[in-house]
Amino acid sequence: xxxxxxxxxxxxxxxxxxxxxxxxxxxxxxxxxxxxxxxxxxxxxxxxxxxxxxxxxxxxxxxxxxxxxxxxxxxxxxxxxxxxxxxxxxxxxxxxxxxxxxxxxxxxxxxxxxxxxxxxxxxxxxxxxxxxxxxxxxxxxxxxxxxxxxxxxxxxxxxxxxxxxxxxxxxxxxxxxxxxxxxxxxxxxxxxxxxxxxxxxxxxxxxxxxxxxxxxxxxxxxxxxxxxxxxxxxxxxxxxxxxxxxxxxxxxxxxxxxxxxxxxxxxxxxxxxxxxxxxxxxxxxxxxxxxxxxxxxxxxxxxxxxxxxxxxxxxxxxxxxxxxxxxxxxxxxxxxxxxxxxxxxxxxxxxxxxxxxxxxxxxxxxxxxxxxxxxxxxxxxxxxxx
Length: 386
What we know:
2 domains, Fic-like fold, Arc Repressor Mutant, subunit A, two-stranded antiparallel sheet, three-stranded antiparallel β-sheet, mainly alpha, 15 helices, 5 strands, 58% helix, 4% strand
């Protein structure tokens, strides 16, 4: 890490450790943020978009038809930033018939852990505030039984880590976060900042919280995923979302280098404005995309419900396909709690009405796909002008 790159005393300071490498100590929160007209306007747009999405969550007849696939989409994209290759289809196929595809099972497990960590974290918000303790808990869930499990799941690091290209070391890494002792001080300040619920606009505080967490990098592995989980949990805890429908990983993944640059420029230049503008643009774009997807999915649901309304079992199975668009007869029987012939009839009826198609070409162990639903859920991510 080149100490000459870090030119803003307001952002933090670079120290030389007794081991001879340099590390960055972020300045205590809160930062001095100048609310110029562009930032105020961006915050207004982001607040409006988030409120519209939250309102949708209250109006949906069954919000879980969106929550479940959106949560999985977030898990896939957040994990992809860290190098996994699994996609939504891999995850859904593994749910209906484990082992049917060639994807690395470790990748799929990492994505599943992300879902578990998010679900458990949201549930724990009923008992705990967003805090260091809760952050350790979701990290433990995230890292259980996957690559990186040796990196002390649920514990803040006691040794130094760093960020850089493969093969980099402490001496040539792009970024070295604070050593353990200074890290603990920074985490205490970060937690105190989270506990202040009166002094900052929610979205500004959320953006600052995320950046500072990434700067501290308190775990040996999994920091990026935990940091992105904290965004969703923060917005739910503050009552800004009625349901977990806003996920920024799709935005970060689509503009990955801009994401990394915006974070790094806070540390090197003290450019909080650049980071905040980038973050708020992501809220606007992601909320609008979620609203667009919700509209398309609900319209699709109503159109097919009209087609199959005279078959109650087909109607019941239809809703399950919005949670996972892949299905087998055996899974349909479990979901509907009916016999194999009855489940087969429901699938055949949905096939006849254009929702399902068989994708294996086998006469046994067939898997069916609701391609119209998949097409909406896999639409390309919206990107802005940055």
